[in-house]
Amino acid sequence: MTTTPIPTNEITATPVPPSHEADAATSRVTFGRLVSAEWLKFRTVRANLAALGGAAAAAVGFGALFSSLAGSGNGPQDLGQNALSLSLGGFRLAEIIIAILGMALVAGEYQTGLIRTWFGAAPRRLSVLAAKATVYGGLVFVVAFAAAILAFLAGQALLPAGWESLTLGSEGVLRALVGTAFYSAAIGVMGIGLGFLLRSTASGAGAVVTMLMIAPLMVSLLPASISDPLGKILPSNAASAVDGMQTGSELLSTGWGVAVLLAWVIGIVGAAAILLKRRDA
Question: Could you state, in order of their start, the residue ranges of all structural domains in the chain?
């Protein structure tokens, strides 16, 4: 006696789960992914793009204004009769905006609590700090360099009659443009460090204004025996040594100017890294 086989449904293959090794490799948080995430966060927030674009517009606009006022007795008198420094004079305001924006990028995350989520996804806090500094510093350098070129070209075109305009190939121009972008990027990274240090937008903004505006004024009121050596190591004076637009015995050499700027960056970011490891988010 033969039995009729009972019909059965088609058996489908069950997918094999991935190995733990492959899963770990896929979900590993690398520095490159942190950089990509930081770049995505920055460019998807319109306020960030508007602030950085506003800084560039201020640099170009005020540089053009100062150049058009050359020789009239108006405008910043300390820029003197230098066609190059007049066209790049707008970066004084732009660099304050850049520093405050860098600080606010971090302090804002602390105030909203987003930083806790960020550290939960990326437990290596120093990598987060480095990624933020890398993205913002690199972006500021590119934007500032482009803005410096535009400000220079606009400023030279608007110089009054009788003023000899410069070209991009003139002596010292390229150094001034690169030096301005380098200083802007350094100031931006300092802002990132201040954000991690102070964790408050208001306190950070006060620190930026004090460092870039109030400190030079206060130092200038001190006796010359104190103000001369102390003034040389301020970020603003170090920037003048780097871009080469001004000369004088009160300024450092180019090499020392770069060293002082890097020392400020390392000091502020290094202090932020130490506290970042010791404090809770």
Answer: 31-59+89-152+166-278
Structure tokens at 104: 């606010």
Q: Are 223 and 213 in contact (CB under 8 A)?
A: no
CB of 262 within 8 A of CB of 251? no
DSSP 153-167: HHHHHTPPTT-----
CB 268 within 8 A of CB 194: yes
Contacts of 263 (CB under 8 A, 6+ apart): none
Both structure tokens of 81 = 């009769």
Tokens found for residue 250: 């009160």
Number of helices (H) and strands (E), helices first, in the chain? 13, 0
Instruction: Kindly report, residue by residue over 171-229, the tens digit of the pLDDT.
Output: 889 999 999 999 999 999 999 999 999 999 999 999 999 998 898 888 888 888 888 88
Q: 118-153: per-residue pLDDT in tens?
A: 888 888 889 999 999 999 999 999 999 999 999 999
Q: What pTM does this model have?
A: 0.85
Give the whole-angstrom CA distance, residue 138 versus residue 188: 9
- The DSSP output letter for 79 is G
Is the Cβ–Cβ distance between 218 and 205 less than 8 Å?
no
The answer to whether the Cα torsion of 268, 271, 275, 277 is positive or negative is: positive
